[in-house]
Amino acid sequence: MCRFVFLFISIFLTIAGCKSSKSTTTSYSAYSSSGGAIPKTVPKTTSTKPAEVATAEKKVVVTPATPVVEANVAPGLERDILGLVNDYRKTKKLPPLANNPAMEYQARRHSMDMGTHRVPFGHQGFPFRMKYVMEKVPGSATVAENIAYGNLSAQAVVSGWINSPEHRKNMEGNYKYTGIGVTRNMQNQLYFTQMFAK
Predict the structure, then answer these.
(1) What is the mean pLDDT of residues 164-173?
(2) What distance in Å separates the CA atoms of residue 142 and residue 197, rounded to the nearest whole number?
(3) Among candidates 106, 195, 87, which has minimal Cα distance to 142?
(4) In whole angstroms, what is the distance from residue 20 CA to residue 28 CA?
(5) pTM to 2 decimals?
(6) Positive or negative, the Cα torsion across 87, 92, 95, 100?
(7) Interatomic CA distance for residues 169 and 94, integer angstroms
């Protein structure tokens, strides 16, 4: 009986969560960037979501202890994104970013929180993540963040960030370290976070 109920709930969540099998970067994905230093000069949250997605999005905040859906990390996509970002930086004659475990932890945690609907898609909690990174990464004085969601490949996410001036600014920044977190929830929706620090 428990298996039947779980299967029914899984199927229901999958059907309820699917918008279309033809996902594109313009209609079912969103990108947002945040950067900051002390003092912070870049707006905390900027979104380049399409108007139709931005108006339909519900701002529901769930208590952090109660996940709405489950999610898993996707380390393969994280590695692919790091490689693509460093390839892009190389074309701009910039040094490659080194993966930092503390930043990776925060990026994964934020993607997990968005993927499980503990927090809405966005930069909620960025000041905490920034403070954490500054404490764990010696000498870091500036932290920035790019996020995205959708059924996207690593190439599609990085291309979306390159085509957005604010995201591109973070990717081309004078940063030394990065942490990338990607999660996939039960609705097969991917959430991406990349943090930068110098």
Answers:
(1) 96
(2) 6
(3) 195
(4) 9
(5) 0.68
(6) negative
(7) 13
